[in-house]
Design a protein that fits this description.
2 helices, about 95% helix, rod-shaped, mainly alpha
């Protein structure tokens, strides 16, 4: 027996659902990378600010040239790490934009298939209702002709 259109669409709907679920996971992972990147950047900024304040206090107390150079070198390393973290964060945000667009497409595709299946079910139900009504009309007609 030939499967109904709505039943055949179940396979397509299931595939669309799986793609949407995969896109959901990718988006969650991508968002998590952005959040972690922002946290790491904030930590580096706080660490840099604290170290600069320590450098200023140590400088007021008097530093040797070697100690001053060491502090300056370390501050430069923190600033470099901060720049690298900002670049990583920029890339993570860009990737999130790409993943979000992919998620939107997967979600729209799923909704379209779901709507199409709903229409198919509705059409099948209307056809079944018409057939049932025809049967009822035929039986009613037969009963009238027999009763006469």
């Amino acid at each position: 027996m030939k499967k109904k259109r709505s039943q055949r669409l179940n396979v397509v709907l299931d595939l669309a659902r799986r793609k949407r679920e995969i896109a959901d996971r990718y988006m969650a992972e991508s968002r998590q990378r952005v959040v972690q990147g922002e946290q790491q950047k904030k930590q580096l900024e706080i660490y840099l600010q604290e170290y600069q304040e320590q450098f200023i206090l140590a400088g007021q107390a008097g530093l040797t040239a070697v100690a001053m150079q060491t502090h300056s070198f370390f501050i430069a390393k923190i600033q470099d790490a901060l720049l690298k973290q900002e670049e990583t964060l920029r890339q993570a945000r860009y990737q999130l934009e790409q993943v979000t667009e992919h998620w939107r497409q997967a979600y729209r595709h799923f909704q379209a298939i779901e709507k199409l299946q709903g229409k198919a079910l509705s059409a099948e139900q209307q056809l079944q209702d018409k057939r049932l009504q025809s049967e009822i009309d035929e039986r009613s007609q037969l009963q009238r002709t027999r009763g006469i």
